């Protein structure tokens, strides 16, 4: 049974509209031609995510998201996505959007990484942002 689950580490955070968010992310994955097996989102603090960044990616920087692709089969999504709620809140203010909107952008950003989208080069970043905007417009909640 395909599953999207939400967990917390070092923070208390309750996602609103969980059922609608799950459907939206699942619909995105299917629309991109993939099958969802298992996707776990872990909401955490800046410090928690910084330690993951150092340990697994050898980066000593704060970030809003880290995505781990655990898929063993092409076209099947299995992954863990860590999201700093503190970064989400700060970036929402910086970009003058609601916290929910910024969280949704980051949720779909992580899913898009698992779908093969990159964001390291300017061209890839532009393509990723266009996809984020496209799927954000499809939320319906």
UniProtKB/TrEMBL annotation:
Keywords: Cytoplasm, Endonuclease, Hydrolase, Metal-binding, Nuclease, Ribosome biogenesis, rRNA processing, Zinc. Binds 1 zinc ion. Its EC number is 3.1.-.-. Coiled coil: none annotated. Gene3D superfamilies: Metalloproteases ('zincins'), catalytic domain (3.40.390.30). Single strand-specific metallo-endoribonuclease involved in late-stage 70S ribosome quality control and in maturation of the 3' terminus of the 16S rRNA. It is found in: Cytoplasm. InterPro entries: MetalPrtase_cat_dom_sf_prd, YbeY, YbeY_CS. Zn(2+) binds at residues 109, 113, 119. Its cofactor is Zn(2+). It holds the Pfam family YbeY. NCBIfam families: rRNA maturation RNase YbeY. This is Endoribonuclease YbeY.
């Amino acid at each position: 049974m395909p599953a999207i689950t939400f967990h917390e580490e070092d923070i208390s955070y309750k996602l609103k509209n969980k059922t609608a968010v799950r459907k939206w992310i699942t619909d995105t994955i299917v629309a991109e031609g993939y099958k969802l097996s298992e996707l776990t989102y872990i909401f955490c603090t800046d410090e928690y995510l910084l330690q993951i960044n150092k340990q697994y990616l050898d980066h000593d920087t704060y970030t809003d998201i880290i995505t781990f692709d655990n898929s063993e089969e092409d076209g099947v999504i299995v992954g863990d996505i860590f999201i700093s709620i503190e970064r989400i809140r700060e970036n929402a203010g910086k970009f003058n959007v609601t916290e929910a909107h910024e969280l949704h952008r980051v949720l779909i950003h992580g899913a898009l990484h698992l779908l093969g989208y990159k964001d390291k080069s300017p061209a890839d970043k532009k393509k990723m942002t266009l996809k984020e905007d496209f799927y954000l417009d499809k939320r319906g909640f």
